[in-house]
Each structure stands twice: as structure tokens, then as C-alpha cells.
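Following up on my earlier thread - several people asked me to post the actual chain instead of describing it. Fair enough. Here it is, all 175 residues.
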Amino acid sequence: MPQTVSVGELTDLVVRVFLRHGVSGKNAGPVAETVVAAERDGAVSHGLLRLPGYVSTLKSGWVDGRAVPVVTDAAPGLVATEAANGFAQPALRASAPLLREKARRQGISAVAIRNSHHFAAVWPDIEPFAAEGFIALAMVNGGSSFRFSKMRRASLVAVPCLRSPVSGLIATMLE
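Reply from S.P.:
Thanks for posting it. Predicted structure:
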């Protein structure tokens, strides 16, 4: 029989799955929150359905669940973050305070996260920024491993997502 759980309970459960598979406590939360946000918002293809894929990447060593992002103040409006072969969400979480500070001071800011893995929906990454009144644009690029139907060779893919605050709501403009 189906069972209903709260977002908080589901997040706790997904965090436990990540912890059991070697993800650090600091990294498990941001990744679990993204998985659960997709499930919450009805994008099940980016929610719990992807959990076995996350686990397999951890088991194979393709992703380092214990990676510690290194955040660098690269320029007046730019943050550069080395994700150290970890998940993108903890790298963004580590970058966020400096990114917000730069946006408030400069009127615009950007973060470049490199050497990261992103298997999820993009909008949960930037919802917190929109909730604080920022207009947020996220781009996730894919390596040459992406191949669509009827393509002869793999290509690079960029997935844009724009979030902005509108009358107290968070609106998706593009994804």
C-alpha cells in the first residue's frame, strides 16, 4: 500500500541512502534536497528515479561523495569553485555566500563550477537565490557523452534554467 511521507521525511531518507554509500554529511544534504525537490515538484524523472544512478556513480568511484569544494574569489563579480570530482550541489552551496555578497555589491555575479557532476534538475539549485529576490540563471553543460536519437556523434549540451521572484512567487521562465 502506498505511503505518504513529508518532504522533510523523504529528505532524511535520501540523506541516509547517500551516507550509507559514502557521501559525507556535508555533501549528502544538498544533493538529497535536489532529488527530493524534483520529486516534490512532479519531475519524477529527476527525483527518486535517479537515486540508483547516484549510488552506482558512487560505487564505481566516478564521483567522489566526500569531495571538498574549494571556493576562490576570482574577480569582482566572479566566484570560481573547484568541485574536486564531487557533486555540483555541495560546490554551489559552498559558493553561495560569496556569490550573494558579490551580487549585492556589484549588481551581478557568476560562479563557475568545474570538475563536478550534476545528475539532477537545475531549478532546485537556484530556487534559494530567487526566493531571496535575485534573478538567477543556471547553465549545466554536458560533456561529449550526450547523444540524442538519430545523432551520428555525441555533442556538447547546455541546459539553461532561469528563476526570478514575481510578486512573492518563484517563477520559472525557461528550463
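The beta strands are 70-75, 78-87, 110-117, 136-146, 155-166, 169-174. That should answer part of your original question.
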